[in-house]
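Sequence and fold:
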Amino acid sequence: MNRRDSIKTLTFASIGAGLLLEGCYGISREKIKRSLTRYEYGRTPEEKLYDDKLFAQKFFSNDELFTFDKLCNIILPPNEFGSIRDAEVVQLIEFMAKDIPSYQDPLREGLVWIDSESKKRFDNLFVDCKVSQQKEILDEIAYYDPNKSIDDYPKPVQWFNLVRNLTMTGYFTSEVGIKELGYKGNFPNVWDGVPQDVLDQYGLEYDKDWIDKFIDQSKRNITAEWDNDGNLIT
């Protein structure tokens, strides 16, 4: 199993729950789930006003957002299903930083650190480094022992872990990410009635006049209607 498949397996097991982010900086699962569902229907008027207020604000600079774009594309490169840009992952990171203020300092401090490290090693900002140079830096902070608490690791490792989890969560809870997972959810199936061999077993059969009314798949998307006497008319 390659790394992307491992990520998909992990995310599929926890989809919709925000488990990758739960516990980060003391944030509850409920708060994470609320941020992840920012575009869904069913928002109360108060929630919609709150979201609109956050959308109107800007936290990260354009340069910071561009750095996140580079990072997220390295973490999850584009494939035939889509990309982190299709999934609006960077926009999600921006939104969650505004919605969950405790993410703000760690995310921004990490951006400062990676530019400083890039300048020290390669005399360039991170986004201006070659991909091989970018990966050289990231390889040193991307791997840690999952049996140890992430809090026991240096700040750069904690920061990259947060960015990676935001990237994976943002992508695999988006339309393109869910398509890549192959997740269907509740999906109407086609039912043609009890199989004939089962009916035969019990000496039963369908009334032909009713089969066309109740088991006609060409009419499956038509809403049933009745007349005033209770007779089915569709």
